[in-house]
Design goal:
This protein is of the alpha/beta class. The chain has one domain: Rossmann fold. The two termini are about 20 Å apart. One of its GO terms (molecular function) is uracil phosphoribosyltransferase activity.
């Protein structure tokens, strides 16, 4: 395999965001009892894009939207050599008896989602939590977690790395598959 391969370019990226938003509208209609929560840090870029698309292009009037930091809920937080930086949690609502759409860019082992579910408990007990990811790396799942709404499924071996790049930070929206994690840095 080449050192890197673009698996979603900017045109398909935009179509994928649009498709995911339409799936959410089909499922949750006017979002009256539904909120969107982006997992800090990488899920926030996707959750903001989803939120803006729902409001600006699909005219959804009111959506509770938050950003959830999971740093201190991770199972590797206290491990030697772990270099983690906490982000700010921005949630001015409770999730009690709501449908929660938890958003992250890439689903890999499932450990990030596990930490997010634990952190989410501080905001109440939701009726339902569903996961939206741009990329589902189907191999190497360590926990029984699956994405309800998925942009693309990628079969990649353990040494490979999937990176989502955003126009506002990298100049172009795209998803890249690297044959080695070191190449992605």
């Amino acid at each position: 395999m080449d050192k890197q391969r673009i698996i979603i370019g900017s045109e398909r990226f935009a179509l994928t965001i649009d498709r995911l938003c339409h799936q959410l509208v089909e499922e949750f209609d006017d979002f009256s009892n539904t909120c969107i929560v982006g997992i800090q840090p990488r899920g926030v870029a996707l959750s903001e894009r989803i939120y803006r698309h729902l409001v600006d292009h699909l005219s959804i009037q009111h959506i509770d939207y938050g950003k959830l930091d999971i740093t201190f809920y991770r199972d590797d937080f206290r491990r030697p050599g772990a270099s983690m930086h906490a982000s700010v949690t921005e949630m001015d609502f409770l999730v009690e008896k709501k449908n929660v759409i938890l958003v992250d860019d890439v689903l890999y082992t499932g450990r990030t989602v596990q930490a997010a579910l634990t952190a989410l408990n501080h905001y109440g007990r939701p009726d339902k939590v569903e996961l939206l990811t741009l990329v589902d790396r189907r191999f190497n799942r360590e926990l029984p977690i699956r994405s309800t709404f998925t942009g693309i499924k990628v079969d990649a071996v353990d040494e490979a790395y999937v990176k989502v790049e955003w126009a506002h930070t990298h100049g172009e929206d795209r998803v890249i598959l690297f044959s080695d994690k070191k190449e992605a840095q």
